[in-house]
Structures are given as structure tokens and as C-alpha cells.
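Protocol step 4 of 6: structure prediction from sequence.
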Amino acid sequence: MGTLKVDTVTNVAGSGAPDATKVTVGTVELSALSQIEYAVDSKPSSPSNGSLVYLSGPKSFQTYFDGYWHDVAFTFPPVNNGARGVFFAGAQNFSPVNRIDYFDISTTGNAATFGNANVAVEDPAGCSDGSRGVFAGGSKSFGTGSTEIQYITVATASNATDFGDDQLTTCKLASVSDGAIGLFAGGYNGSTSMHRIRKVTIQTLGNATNHGDLTNAYNQGAESLSGAANLTRGLFFGGMRSGGYRAQIDYITIATGGTANDFGDLTVSRAYSGAFASSSRAVVAGGATNGLSVLSPIDYVEIMTTSNASDFGDLISARWGAAGCGNGVRGVFGAGYSYVSSLEYVTIAVPSNAATFGNLTLGRYTPGACAGD
């Protein structure tokens, strides 16, 4: 690289120093632009309206207006994912376990123990608003379902707490969130597949309320389906009813509810799969299909564009009864029958085969999962 040496800077006439007040960029004089002051930890002595100071102690901003400094409040958009992944409860040998595990999604490694479920359940469904994780349903004994809704604060490792009750007694349900509302769809009550979609407000403890239904294609209900969402639309994938495995994908606008709409079809009929999403793409992997054939294919769809799913790649290990969660960039699949502890990950924007992530503290199948900070 060359070096530019400048000994003297003069005005255009060469008669003296340049007039810095006349600096222009293109045709705009910089002196004509509105000026504000910015400082760190020391407020300007003669501030003008709009001057800004960053206070590093409390990590906050203040702005000056008409003689006073005012705190600046930021409103952040809701999220439904985060840096920490959580796997909640599940089953071993057709009996529920209460273990909750967590891990950092952005790095690979083994999970650590987060705490215990308030009630041990298999086949629950989990969702998050980015700070609180909510887990609904699941069986206290094999295949019976429950009305349990439990919650955790994702950033604080501890035992789960009672949230309220679901409208229905279910296990094998699916869940999605738009960062404020959590929806629980379908499920199984010990004898019948369910079609209703139920709603909770994640930051408000209470019972679930009715929010809509799955499509007519699911008019006999669906169980063992999976769900993923962005901040607008929730998708429900596959599932089964009356022993038949489905390729159906439903979608719903989470904030408004109502009857879901047909989105398209998976590349293969499947139930007991895991799913997660970024702001634009949903990914679903693993599961089982007719004859309980265990699957390794990974599918994906663009959430805001109705269509059939496309092939994303393959899991390292075929598995059913898995769960999935993501941070918006990377997604992690894990668990599965029988008593699988391994975790695998993909980069959501890049279709490819999954890679090794680490292991859960306890091998299990059909846990719930969510992500948050």
C-alpha cells in the first residue's frame, strides 16, 4: 500500500487556510445540516435540543430537550427465540420424567441441568416469548393427557411453576408463539385426536382459552404434530389421526386466530417430528411415518409463502419423538426414541445435513422445547 504525504493544505486560491465552514458533500454544505452533541458519561455544558449522552454505569441514554435531560426508553419488538435452548420433561420406557435441560444454541457442547418440571409429563409442547417458556399438556401416565400448563424463566435455572390449565386434557400437542401469545394445537386425550387451538398470553398466568381450529383436513383432529412460527404466522406440521400419518401443513395468523388455513404438504407424511424457525423460514426434521418407519429427512418452508415443503438435508441419526428449538440463526434437534440424548444442529438459512452438537443430561423422547434469553 502506498503512502500519501500532504505538507500543506490551502484554499482554492492558494492564499491561505481552507474555509472548513464551507465543506460540502456532493451539493450539500455540512454546515447547513442540523447538529446534535453526543457524549459519554459527561453531559455537554451548553446542550441543544436533541443532544444525547450515554451513561455507562446504568447503561442508559438521556436526551436534552427544553432545559431538561430525559431518560430514553427503547421499545424492543417481541421475540420467540433466544440464545438458550431448553428441553423440558419427556419420557423413558413409557414413563414421564421431570428433567429440564438447557444449552447455549450458538455454541456446540453438552447440556446442563436447568431444574425439574413442576409435574413430570411426557409429550408436552413448549413455546416462548423470549424470556418465559410455557409448556402445556403431556401425560402423567402413558397416553392419558393432562391439563397442566407450567412455566420457567429461561434466563434463570430453576424448577418449573404452575401457570394455569389448558381447556383440554391432552398430550401429543403442538405449540407456536408470536413473541406474546402462545398457541397449543391438536393433541390426544387418551382416546381421541383433538382439532382445537388454544391460547395463552405468555406473560399473564391463567388458563388457556379457545382461539380457533385446525383446518378441515384435520376435522377429526391431529396428534403428534409439530409447530414453528415467526412473529406473525404459526405453522403446524404433519401429525396423525386414526393411525394414519399426515403430510398436511396448516398455518394461522397467531394474533387473530380463527380456523387455520392449508399451507401445503411436507415431502413425506410424518408425526413425532421436531421443528423451529427463523424470522422467515421454518424447518422440520425426523419423526415417524406409516408402519412406524423412523425418518431422517429435514424439510423447510418459507413461512410467509404457502407452498409444499422442500428438502433441506438429513439428520445424522433418524429419530422420532424429537424436539427442536432455535435462536433464529441456528436450530437444534434432540432427544428421540429410545432414550436418545444426542443433539444435532443446522444453520437455518443454509440447507445441509445436520452436524453434531452435544448431548442432553438425560436420554429421553417426546420432550417439549423452547428458546429464550
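Step 5 (inspection) to follow. Residues 80 and 324 are 13 Å apart (CA to CA).
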